[in-house]
């Protein structure tokens, strides 16, 4: 599907790594593997803010017979850990697997931090890069980085969820702000391996609602005649204060047989309230190669009971990867067929949608509201 406004707004070449938090303690040469998956919100001045995930990687991770990973240490700052090449599988450019362990153990080829970038009111021009507002690891549960911000403005507060990565746990952490630009860390709100948590942009019957995606290495089979497929799925949770969450008992959006998103699905944009109900854009993955094909689909939920799915469009994607947008970055591409949608705003007769394009750059798309009718 083509849209009149569909562009790459920010990429790895737009970042000055002299302002990177890693410069405080790592002398080895690094580069921006990707500047992608931007959380999206509107600031009080009317401009937009994208909170960009910057994946910073070693230029030469392999030295001699060892491969290296970046880690943040509470006492030493950023350090390099080394692993013998014979003990790893580095087929995926984003991570490598440590072999000879009884469970699946991964290490990352980069460390992620968050960069706030201010855009104009329609998201088509960069106004200011807020290097002084960088969000970097601060706690031991963030030792391998802070990833994939999602922002929801609820009443007078901006709530930003992120994925914090460490050997301790793979958790969801919450930041809050009163101005959309300066964020305070509130800590862990969902524990081990719960990714793509998004708060609904508004309360339902006085409660906060959120999408969650608990992960694991084991899933149980549906009955042979079931329309559903086992694997990662989206669920709902509710909270009185956005800190303490109870999952709802019923399952929510799951992979369905015949869909083009059979490998896994997960939350994309923060659900926003429309005249028809809560609108949600999410990602679905088709099995292909190591990473798969990521596309964006959508669903409409009941305004008063979000567990009621009014419409689920999981056959035809609303957004797919567009390699033609990346002609200036083609030499830096290390993935293909990946679009990861991460934010949405109402702009009158259309929606402004933010996505990560092939884990490399930030994409802004203006979608007419007729798309969702």
Features of the shown structure:
mainly beta; 373 residues; Tachylectin-2, Chain A
Largest beta-sheet characterization: 5 strands, antiparallel
The shape, in one word, is globular
What's the CATH C level? Mainly Beta
Strand content bin:
over 45%
Mean pLDDT: 95
What structural category arises from helix and sheet content?
Answer: mainly beta
Helix content: under 10%
CATH architecture annotation name: 5 Propeller
Q: Residue ranges: pLDDT <50 for 5 or more in a row?
A: none
Description of the molecule:
This protein has strands spanning 5-10, 30-42, 48-58, 62-63, 66-73, 77-84, 88-89, 95-98, 105-108, 110-119, 126-129, 146-154, 157-165, 170-177, 184-190, 198-199, 208-212, 235-239, 246-247, 264-267, 272-274, 277-286, 293-301, 309-313, 339-346, 350-357, 361-368. The protein has 373 residues and is mostly beta strands. It has one domain (5-372): Tachylectin-2, Chain A (5 Propeller), CATH 2.115.10. The strands form seven sheets. Strands 20, 21, 22, 23 and 24 form a five-stranded antiparallel beta sheet that branches. A four-stranded antiparallel beta sheet has the order 1-27-26-25, with no helix packed on it. A four-stranded antiparallel beta sheet has the order 2-3-10-11, with no helix packed on it. The chain starts with a strand and ends in a 5-residue tail after the last strand.
